[in-house]
Design goal:
It is a single chain. About 55% of the residues lie in helices and about 10% in strands. The protein contains 46 helices and 21 strands. Strands 16, 17, 18, 19, 20 and 21 form a six-stranded mixed β-sheet that branches. The protein has a five-stranded antiparallel β-sheet with strand order 5-4-3-6-7. It has a five-stranded mixed β-sheet with strand order 13-12-11-14-15, sandwiched between helices. Helix 18 runs parallel beside helix 20 and helix 22 runs parallel beside helix 24. It starts with a strand and ends with a helix.
């Protein structure tokens, strides 16, 4: 026997003689005594020469003089690891003998006051390399002591310095794994590197020492995430493999370690070569190990772990099946009673859980829980891996809860995690893991039952986990992300803006911590995108929704087809596009949303927990498209998808009320279109259930109450039941009461409530209903938050309510509505989207002007008509407005405004011509909105300067009168209220009102229809050779139209202004007409029944048209000093029919110009490039060509040139500084869009814009 002597007299330890292999494995021995008062004393012994059985003592155990209650633990170092021999055995009195197994016997003998105690312990010589991967962190059964640095040795005193350096490095590595002290792992790498450097090539221990170095580098990588470490680890371990002969019995060890390191790098960089090579190495380790070898289960386990990782990346069913097979075989090869069996069971359970998460076979999750529970049951509470196994079990219980919603599962998961935390001392490196897992589980339970205590506790636990995790720890991003998600959950419930800001902050921190190549990048992008959407819906900042869409698009792009997360990321992207469409109205967004969500639905099998979400969002997207395009197929398909979402969601699920609400409002939309009473009854039923299921305090309850209230009001309007009206108002009032001031949805809720109150006022005539209605609409319209479209809708309702109740706020309502229109048709939107919003607005400007006229506010009416029409043209012209006065005061601000305006004028293009990168349409639109927002901010800053308060605001009345200097300006307003003309006459400082009592909107619309039919039947929409010439003036239908225009419009105007028929002194007259009058030939109005009739406008004035009064002012700028130059583009070879008389036109022009400078581009010479170039340099323009009006997208209307179309969109961006006069001898140049009659969306209008 070998004798070990301590510094305290009378104490000794005996170990029975073993073979030399055992003695060489012993590195150090520790005895620890823990007294009942909690104090600890221990002695740490270091082997000096184990072959001789000699140990040096480093301290003494302070054993008590009497025998109290105490705990004795014995640790022995084997193979570089510290193993507990006596598992903290509690001793009382004369307990002389404890049988724990063989073969090591330790005898403690004392003097007269001590009892002799004999312990037998089973020591397993476990190979440290075989346990590297294990079950997540359940790799090495190590219980290294804390606070003891170990004996400081002068290693130069030893003849085998590399061996001692290796031993010390292994000890430091082991202690690092137990306590996570970075100094230990750094020192371990240094010692092991030194050992390798001192070991000559060819030395038999060289492969082993290289392998130890690789393991230490791998361990540091797992802690810090530095790529250099894992790269170097793989290099070292590959070298160890190469230096170990294939027939060497230890060959599987370095192969397995190399495979595990390659797996770790794959999990970081997502390089498929790494996972393929990892599996090859791990399979080789298994193949080289004979059945019955004690390490075979370990190699099988490692192989199974790598197969799971490849499965999670590629989704191949063969991989998960093979992984489970490896883990099952590892369990089968590990007998009952083997201390490693619990680890094997835990890994098997985890692999079954992984398969369940992909395919959601309930047998898998049930079996996983069984295996994981067995692992927990086999693990004593004082085992260092008990908390890990509890955590794995909790994870599987949480997974089953996510699928089935059984509260017992999430309750049990939380209990397991709370136990894991209680078993883990403060300072333990894994404690943050358990805290984070517990926080996530509490968040899940909160989502199920809505107990605020859970979400508060969740955030607290997750914050603790984050605080305990160093910034450079590889798990820091995941823990920050979990914390951000819990803030999101609390925000969804309480609506506190601080929570969503905190969530976004955490997700942005995550983005800063992980590189673009990190495999978790798509997940984090999705989380950040989701948080930004929520803040956008609360605050309405367009940057948030644009950034959300951008992040979610990148997440989709980074996710390969076939990846199990592809459907989730497509669904999230689709949802974000739906939200943006609802705010901006870009049709491309809703089309893309439907495509993405349909794809997400197709990729998600029935039974998956997230399928109802994608179905519901798909249904909402289809409904949104229906409301825009009015295609019944969309609303029917929407209801099918929403019903499926409801059917797939079990009762009690927290999302069930949301799906029911979505279904209810969609059925309500169909009722409003189709009118089936079954739909309104079904809608109310669904919405009532949604409200009943929503807990008090739920942030969405206000919306659901509002939808229920609206549905009851609509049923009242059809069936007349007073209870429906009263109950509807009650629900709408409750929705308003639940919404704090400043919330972006409040304007919409107030507007809905006001509408119902007006309905009741009209039914019961209660004055307080009328007053409350006006008050709510005023508040909604002037709200500083909320969608401009909603606020404009509130203003329109306010106008209607004020008219209905004869309220004194009528003009204020009109003025408010006019002021909001530019916000709805915002410069940051594309021109088609602005036009679409203006179509939806309808004739509100004309109606407001008519109301002002009725109240004798003629000047106000004129200003409103000017502000609310040709909005898009005015926005474009503003981008070219000189800023000389501003530059004199604030040159930097002026230059910035010019730069941003220039970029917007060119469509937001600011790309280096040499750059190879081409932005996507999405990126271009986002850049354009950002520029528009920046310009808005610059303009507001300019207006804050002295004398610049009206900078870029519409012209005031005094300035508008200047337009009449060259002739009378007649503004004709067509409204359902009444029709009138307002005339501006030079020298008269007020608008002259001319009533038009015989002109009605209905009759004007009919005249337009008849005139269009005449033009179509006559073929005059196309300038080409016809079978016979058509005399339009001789057509009876045309005569009738022209006569009506004379009788009901032109003659009353001429009579009021006292115009006389004098062909020698014909004055100029500018017609600025509204509504459908814009498409009628007022310039030809007259009576053509007899040849000698003088009642024709051409006998009284020379008529011209202008889309706005401001256009005349824009044209009357500084004179052009450039020498005269004329351009004629004649009959380009567009492939269409021959245009007659173009040669005659050209000859006439040549004759009139004589020797003046002119350019002719004839047929093939009239290319787009040549025409555009010459247009810039010319004063006069003559175009004789075909044209086309695009009814679907008016700005794509075009002139047809030799090599393509010169579109209206291109024309308005030309900026023709020398232009004076354009003659458009082309078809369809003023056809325009009937739905945009006040916007002059035709080629002639675009030419005016370009020439301004």
């Amino acid at each position: 026997m070998h004798l070990l002597t301590f510094s305290r007299p009378g104490i000794s330890v005996e170990l029975p003689a073993q073979d030399d292999h055992f003695l060489n494995d012993i590195f150090h021995l520790v005895l620890e005594l823990k007294l009942s008062d909690g104090s600890v004393d221990r002695v740490d012994l270091l082997s000096r020469d184990p072959t001789l059985g000699v140990w040096d003592a480093n301290g003494s155990l302070g054993l008590p003089e009497t025998i109290p209650h105490y705990t004795l633990s014995v640790f022995v170092g084997l193979g570089g690891q510290e193993h507990q021999l006596v598992a903290s055995k509690e001793l009382y009195g004369p307990e002389l003998f404890v049988q724990l197994g063989d073969p090591v016997k330790i005898l403690l003998s004392g003097h007269e006051n001590y009892l002799d105690m004999v312990f037998k312990a089973k020591v397993m010589a476990v190979n440290p390399f075989g346990q590297m991967s294990g079950e997540k962190s359940d790799n090495i059964n190590n219980t290294t002591t804390q606070g003891q640095e170990g004996t400081s040795l002068n290693l130069d005193d030893y003849p085998d310095k590399p061996s001692r350096l290796t031993n010390l490095g292994i000890f430091l590595l082991t202690r690092f794994k137990r306590f996570g002290n970075l100094d230990d792992i750094n020192n371990a790498v240094v010692r092991l590197q030194a050992a390798v450097n001192l070991t000559p090539d060819g030395h038999p221990d060289k492969p082993l020492r290289i392998s130890y170095l690789g393991i230490s580098l791998y361990s540091r990588f797992k802690r810090l995430g530095h790529l250099d470490d894992i790269d170097n680890a793989i290099i070292q371990l590959q070298l160890a493999v190469d230096l170990t002969p294939n027939d060497h019995p230890d060959k599987p060890n370095p192969l397995s370690n190399l495979g595990i390191s390659l797996l770790a790098r794959f999990e970081r960089l997502d390089n498929l070569d790494d996972i393929e090579n990892a599996i090859l190495r791990l399979q080789a380790a298994v193949d080289l190990t004979p059945d019955g070898h004690p390490d075979k289960p370990i190699w099988l386990r490692n192989l199974g772990t790598s197969l799971i990782s490849r499965f999670e990346r590629l989704g191949g069913l063969d991989d998960i099946e093979s992984a489970i097979k490896q883990h099952q075989e590892a369990v089968n090869l590990t007998p009952d009673g083997d201390p490693d069996r619990a680890s094997q069971l835990s890994n098997l359970g985890t692999s079954l859980q992984t398969r369940f998460e992909m395919y959601e076979n309930l047998c898998d999750i049930d079996n996983a829980i069984t295996q994981l529970q067995a692992a927990v049951n086999l693990t004593p509470d004082d085992h260092p891996h008990k908390p890990l196994r509890l955590n794995n079990l909790a994870s599987s219980l949480r997974g089953r809860f996510n699928h089935l919603g059984n509260l017992d599962d999430i309750d049990n998961a939380i209990l397991r995690l709370q136990l894991a935390i209680s078993l883990t001392p403060d300072g333990h490196p894994h404690k943050p893991n358990w805290l984070s897992s517990l926080g996530t589980s509490l968040q899940k339970r909160f989502g199920r039952i809505g107990n605020l205590v859970d979400i508060e506790d969740s955030i607290s636990r997750l914050q603790d986990a984050v605080n305990l995790t160093p910034d450079d720890h590889p798990d820091k991003p995941a823990r920050l992300s979990n914390l951000g998600n819990s803030f999101v959950s609390r925000f969804e419930r309480l609506g506190n803006i601080d929570d969503i800001n905190n969530a976004i902050l955490r997700h942005q921190m995550v983005m800063n911590l992980i590189p673009d190549s990190h495999p978790q990048k798509p997940n984090q992008l999705s989380d950040l995108g989701g948080s930004l959407i929520m803040r956008f819906e609360h605050l309405g900042d367009l940057d948030d929704i644009d950034n959300a869409v951008a992040h979610l698009q990148v997440a989709v792009n980074l996710t390969p087809d076939g990846h199990p997360e592809k459907s989730n990321r497509l669904g999230s992207l689709g949802g974000s596009l739906l939200v943006r469409f609802e705010h901006l109205g870009n049709l491309d967004d809703i089309q893309d949303a439907i495509l993405r969500l349909q794809e997400a639905v197709n990729l998600t099998p029935d039974g998956r927990i997230d399928k109802p979400s994608w179905l519901s969002n798909l249904g909402l997207s289809l409904r949104a498209r229906f409301e825009r395009l009015r295609n019944l197929d969309d609303i029917n398909s929407s209801i099918i998808q929403l019903q499926a979402a409801v059917d797939l969601t079990p009762d009690g699920h927290p999302e069930k009320p949301k799906w029911l609400n979505n279904l209810g409002i969609t059925v309500l939309s169909r009722f409003q279109r189709v009118g089936s009473l079954g739909d309104i009854q079904n809608a109310i039923a669904q919405l009532q259930v949604a409200v009943n299921l929503a807990p008090d305090g739920h942030s969405e309850k206000r919306r659901w109450l509002s939808h229920l209230g609206l549905s009851l009001i609509i049923r009242f309007e059809h069936l007349g039941n007073q209870d429906d009206l009263d109950n509807g108002i009650s629900r709408l009032q409750a929705a308003v009461d639940l919404t704090p001031d400043g919330h972006p949805v409040k304007p919409g809720l107030l507007s809905n409530l006001a509408t119902s109150l007006l309905t009741r006022f009209q039914r019961l005539n209660h004055p307080h209903d009328a007053e409350a209605c006006i008050s709510h609409l005023l508040t909604a319209a002037f709200s500083p938050v909320g969608s401009p479209s909603v606020r404009l809708g509130a203003a329109q309702k306010w106008i209607h309510a004020a008219l209905t109740t004869t309220h004194t706020s009528l003009l204020a309502a009109c003025e408010c509505a006019i002021s909001i229109i530019p916000l709805v048709a915002w410069l940051g939107l594309s021109i088609p989207d602005r036009h679409q919003h203006l179509v939806e607005i309808g004739g509100i400007v004309r109606d407001a002007a008519a109301i002002a006229i009725v109240l004798d506010e003629f000047d106000m009416a004129l200003e409103w008509l000017e502000q609310g029409r040709s909005i898009v043209w005015n926005q474009i012209l503003q981008l070219r407005t000189p800023v000389d006065e501003l530059r004199a005061v604030e040159p930097d601000l002026a230059n910035r405004l010019l730069h941003v305006s220039s970029l917007l004028y060119q469509g937001g293009q600011d790309i280096n011509p040499q750059a190879a990168h081409k932005r996507s349409p999405e990126e271009e639109a986002r850049q354009y909105r950002a520029l528009a927002k920046e310009r808005d901010e610059i303009v507001e800053k300019v207006r804050s300067l002295p004398k610049f308060q009206d900078f870029l605001k519409p012209f005031r009345l005094g300035r508008l009168f200047e337009a009449a200097k060259e002739g009378a300006v007649i503004v004709v307003n067509v409204s359902i209220v009444q029709c009138d003309a307002l005339a501006l006459i030079d020298g008269v400082d007020e608008a002259i009102h001319i009533p038009l009592p015989d002109l009605t909107p209905k009759r004007v619309n009919q005249l337009q229809i008849e005139f269009n039919a005449l033009l179509k039947s006559s073929g005059v929409r196309q300038r080409a050779v016809r079978d016979e010439e058509v005399e339009v003036g001789g057509d009876e239908g045309c005569k009738k139209i022209l006569a009506e225009l004379w009788d009901h419009l032109v003659k009353p105007v001429l009579d009021s202004l006292a115009f006389s028929s004098d062909p020698d002194t014909l004055p100029r007259m500018w017609w600025c007409v509204t509504g459908p009058l814009a498409f009628l030939p007022i310039h030809a109005a007259g009576v053509y029944d007899t040849e000698y009739s003088t009642e024709k406008i051409q006998n009284y004035a020379i008529s011209s048209y202008t889309p706005t009064i401001s256009s005349l002012l824009e044209q009357s700028g500084a004179p052009i000093h450039k020498p005269f130059r004329h351009l004629s583009a004649i009959e380009p070879s567009s492939g269409l029919s021959y245009i007659p008389n173009t040669e005659k036109e050209l000859e006439y022009i040549r004759h009139r110009l004589q020797n003046r400078d002119y350019v002719v581009l004839y047929k093939a010479d009239a290319t787009k490039e040549r025409v555009m170039k010459e247009m810039w340099d010319c004063n006069w323009l003559h175009l004789a060509c075909h044209g086309t009006q695009n009814a679907t997208n008016p700005i794509k209307s075009a002139l047809l040139l030799h090599d393509g179309k010169l579109t209206l969109e291109e024309i308005i961006r030309l900026d023709l500084p020398h232009a004076e006069f354009a003659f458009l001898s082309a078809c369809q140049t003023m056809t325009g869009d009937e739905s945009l009659s006040d916007e002059a969306v035709h080629i002639a209008g675009g030419m005016l814009c370009a020439c301004a």
